[in-house]
Amino acid sequence: MSFDYTKTKGTADRLINSFGAALAFSRETGETFDPSTGQTTSTTESFSRDVVWTEYRNQEIDGTTVQRGDARLIVSGEVEIGDKVTKNGTEWRILDVNLLQPANLAVIYIAQARQ
C-alpha cells in the first residue's frame, strides 16, 4: 500500500501561501554573444515563489556552512542553487537547496540564502 503525497503537497502549498509571502526570484539562464560588438550578455528568467522566511537557530550556525545572518526558506515551488531572491529590497543568493520529495513528488524546497 502506498501513500498519496498529492494531498500533502496541496496542504504544504496552502500553508506556505497562508503564512509566507510571494517573493521575486531570478535565475541566469544562459549567455548570448554578439559577434558584431564582441559583447556577451546573460539572460535572466524572473519568477515568483511563495516563501516562509525563517532564521537559523544559534546551534545551527557554524560560521562556515551556515553563517550568522543566513536565512532558511521554505519554498513552494522549485528553486536552485545560484538563484537570487529579493526580500524588502535586498537581494539574497541561494546557496543550498534540500528537496522533500517522497515517492518522486516534490512537496517543498528548503533553501539556504545569504546576502
Give a written overview of the molecule:
- With 115 residues, the chain is mostly beta strands.
- The chain has a single domain (6-30, 43-114), classed as Thrombin, subunit H (Beta Barrel).
- It contains 1 helix and 6 strands, in the order αββββββ.
- It has one helix at 6-19, and strands at residues 21-34, 39-55, 71-76, 84-87, 90-100, 108-114.
Précis, in short:
The protein is mostly beta strands and 115 residues long.
Structural class: mainly beta
Instruction: Look at the structure and give the mean pLDDT.
Output: 94
Assembly annotation: single chain
Into which percent range does the helicity of residues fall?
A: 10-25%
List keywords for this structure.
6-stranded antiparallel β-barrel, 115 residues, 51% strand
Write the layout of secondary structure elements.
Layout: H1 6-19, E1 21-34, E2 39-55, E3 71-76, E4 84-87, E5 90-100, E6 108-114
Antiparallel strand pairs: 1-2, 1-4, 2-3, 3-6, 4-5, 5-6
